[in-house]
Here is the input.
Amino acid sequence: MPWRTTRSIERRSWQRCSRRRASSTWSSSPPCCTSRRSRSIASASRRAHPERSEDPMPEYDLIIRNGNVIDGTLAPGRAADVAIAGDRIEAVGTVIGTARREIDARGHAVSPGFIDVHTHDDAAVVRDPRVDFKIMQGVTTDVAGNCGAGVAPANEAFRQFYPAGFAPILGESALPWSTTAEFFAAVDEAHPACNVAAYVPHGVVRYNVVGLSKEPPTDVELQQMRELVDEGMRAGAIGMSSGLVYLPGSNAETPELIELAKVVARYGGIYTSHIRNEGDGLLAAVAEAITIGEASGCPVQISHHKAGGPHVKGLTKDSLRFIAEARARGIDVDVDVYPYTASSSSLAAMYRIGRGPLFEVVPSIIASVKYEHEKYEGKYVADIARELGMPVGDAIQKILHDEENSPSVIMFIMDEEDVRRVVADDHAMIGSDGRPSEP
Ligand SMILES: [Zn+2]
Here is the structure.
């Protein structure tokens, strides 16, 4: 059974409502809610004649009135009420009935919960199930396990690696599970305030089997990786993610990823990738993701699509055209994108993949440190270098050394025109790429 299907009922019923509504124009009552409305009229007339019915039960649990309803069908927002009974949206339009609770949403937008298609909340949904950082932004479905990073499966070796390897992205976790199914059970047990879906993270799978080996896996090792991916898919994962700039995912070559994606394809899952290069090697890296999809039979979702760095400004014109050409050949390939011009990542990883020179030219901020060097936190790298009286490159080396490679960095590497272009693409979805703060 797919994981957490029951908790997506609310969204499905909204979609059902929206789909039928989209095919017709309606003013006071959506066609899908006609029967409910007839009953509303009946109960309103009962209220006008109290002798017929002493104290009618409210028909709905909740009515959100007078909001600007934006339903996700690309239709413009319109003034409407939304009536909810149990966990179903029962009526959208002018709702005549009554509810146990009513909210006047005049002056506010009312929309289905947002799906954040790219997050790093794997550990956070268990550690902090209130997930205020999602709910307060209107996100009701969180898609975790991205960029090859995650918290399961977890053997003892991975548990040892996690604090330095993935905790800088995902936050602390004792990883009290071994399999993906056990991790999903822990999420269910924590009962987070949003729906959660997750990918099997390739980097985690690889570490469980070969650690930080730079070699291609042997047949036996590859089979072990396949089995871990298979276990995750059976547990209800929605696909596999890779992070080909991060250790250990960066040690994987294309054939390994194709073989593992074939397992994902058997379950109808998605291959999503933080591709190998988002700078001057962008097009080749997009081509690799498309090849993996084509050879495995998986739909492809390219993560946080961007042209990273002033030297590749405008390159998303070519990459989006390249992706559209692949789609025209019948390959199912989409992108996700975050709507900001700064990226956030591990300082060590960015340095390792050759972004060192970029620190000289783009504003970069040390976002978090793990140990006691708070003096670096929230500061521009250039300012830290000035204070230390050393060149930027040397200052970064010192920060990495002092903080044992743990800092994360925010780099303003994108041109706003590129961001706007990707966001506006018909095949782009918004994902925050958010990573949770510590409680
Ligand atoms: Zn990423």
About this structure: Residues 1-53 have pLDDT under 50 and may be disordered.
